[in-house]
Amino acid sequence: MVRIPSAASLADIAVDLATGAGRLIREHRSDHYVIDTKSTPSDMVTDVGPRDVPLQRAVVGTGFAYDADVRARQGAVVAALLPRLADIRRCGSAALDLCATAAGRLDAYFEAGLNPWDWSAGVLVAGEAGCVTGGLRGRVPATRMTAVAGPRLAADFFALLEEVDADGVGAA
Questions:
Q1: 46, 68, 88, 92 — which has fewest CB within 10 A?
Q2: Is residue 49 in a domain?
C-alpha cells in the first residue's frame, strides 16, 4: 500500500471515480487515504500532486463557453498558447480538471466564465494539494478567470495567460 497526502489523493480519487479508472480506496484515516495496490496494477501506482515541469512541457486543461462569440475568443487564446505548451486538453468538468491538476494528471488549468459552484471546491482541493491558485493580475480565482498550476510552473504559466489576455475573453 502507498500512503499519500489527503488533498492530492482525494483529487486523484475524485478523477478516478468520475472517469471509471477503477482504483479502490482500502481505508481512510484522518490525514491520508490508502490506495489498494493489490487491486491496482503496479504501473498505475504513482506519486500524486502537482508535477514539476517547465512551461514548454506542461499539459494544460481548460474549458469553453457555450456562447459562440466567447468561444471564438477562447479559441484564439488557445491558438496563442499551443506553440508554447506541450498540449491543451478538455477532460470534463471544471471541478474534475481542477482535481486532475491537484493530482498531477494535468500540470495547469485555466478557464474564464465559470460560476463559483464550478470552481470553488476544486480550487480549494488544488490549493490544499500544493497548487498556486489565482485569477491573474493579482486577483483571486473568480468568474473572470480561474487559474491553477503547480508551484514551480505557476509564475510562468500565469504570466503567459496574462500575455495572451486569457482573462479578457468574456468582455464583449
A1: 68
A2: no
The CATH number of the domain where 123 resides is what? 3.40.190.80
Whole-structure pTM value = 0.77
Our count of domains for the chain comes to 2
Contact 1, 23 (CB under 8 A): no
Q: Are residues 63 and 123 in the same domain?
A: yes
Alpha-carbon span 170 to 107, nearest angstrom: 24
Q: Are residues 89 and 159 in the same domain?
A: yes
What domain range is 36 assigned to?
2-44
- pLDDT per residue, tens digit, the chain (172 aa), is 444 445 555 555 555 544 545 444 444 444 444 455 555 555 554 567 788 999 999 999 999 999 999 999 999 999 999 999 999 998 778 998 998 899 888 999 999 999 999 999 899 889 988 999 999 999 999 999 999 999 999 999 999 999 999 999 985 4
Number of Cβ within 10 Å of residue 35's Cβ equals 24
The answer to whether residue 76 is domain-embedded is: yes
